Amino acid sequence: MLILDSPTAMRAWSQGRRTSSRTTIGLVPTMGALHDGHLALIDAAAQRCDLVVVSIFVNPLQFNRTDDFDLYPRPLDDDLAQCRARDVAAIYAPTPDSMYPRDFETNVCPGSLADPLEGVGRPGHFRGVTTVVAKLFNAVAPDVAVFGRKDVQQLSLIERMVADLDMPIEIIGVDTVREPDGLAMSSRNRRLTPELRAAAVVVPRALEAAVAAARARPRADPEALRRHAIEVIDAEPHARLEYFELVDPSTLREPTRDDGPLLAVTAIWFDDVRLIDNRLIPHS
Ligand code: PAF
């Protein structure tokens, strides 16, 4: 398994593979601290492509809090061992200087899909994501790129970017992998104390409460479903709600029809750790 640490080295590897055969390349972009959710992305890429590249880069452009960036876990040796065990062909772990040299000043500016939900509390976050993902795509030149559905707004924005900028890359979304108690796997879970980890189960419980209420009352008022879920969150003293919304899955905005599925999306703080999650809700 090769480890490539600059866009130039990554591109040379990718071009070398392509001229020698009709090899297809699948990219799994990550910020490291790999868990079973990432391994599901690697498996999805391996099913579709001959070679899998995993990128590991904690992207400073997408963090709006320096403490979150500084505290982001970076267990590189463990990440490399997991990728080796999965037969990953190459790791793209660019140095910060090779990604963002001193005179770097061009960004990919996402459209209105970036404004609601995560965009409210994390201004500039998605601009950082689309910029780094475009750079990763240019360096790796993948045929396919795989992202998790836990970051549902990120996935929608990347699909939009690829369509809008004519990038010849197929984007695959993979379902969220959960712990046995339902908590979505996330690199940030490592930062939860045992007490906060126990409290964090309220995230999937609140989503499940909205799903159960929707099943019990077909075509229920989305606001009633939302209030029901928020009651569950408010009952957990360690949880600080940032948002819980029911949106149209395609626009990520308030639904305009009174039938069709809804997407429940939430961001909840546990001390200084912010967790996000979502569930599709039947609504007809
Ligand atoms: O989802 C992530 O881990 C990151 O946002 C990504 C896509 C690797 C870009 O830095």
Question: Features of this protein?
Answer:
Rossmann fold, alpha/beta, binds pantoate, six-stranded parallel sheet, Pantoate--beta-alanine Ligase, Chain: A,domain 2
Describe the structure.
This protein is of the alpha/beta class. It has helices at 7-20, 36-48, 66-71, 76-85, 96-99, 118-121, 125-140, 152-164, 194-199, 202-216, 222-234; strands spanning 2-4, 25-30, 51-56, 90-92, 144-148, 170-174, 239-247, 262-270, 273-281. β5 (144-148), α8 (152-164) and β6 form a beta-alpha-beta unit. The chain is globular and about 60 Å long. Pantoate binds next to β2 and α7.
CATH topology name of the largest domain, in short, is Rossmann fold
Say how many strands there are: 9
Q: What can be said about the biggest beta sheet?
A: 6 strands, parallel
Record the strand order, biggest sheet.
1-4-3-2-5-6
Q: Please state the CA-atom Rg, rounded to the nearest Å.
A: 19 Å
* Model regions low in confidence, pLDDT < 50 over at least 5 residues: none
Give the CATH superfamily of the largest domain: HUPs
CATH C-level category of the largest domain: Alpha Beta
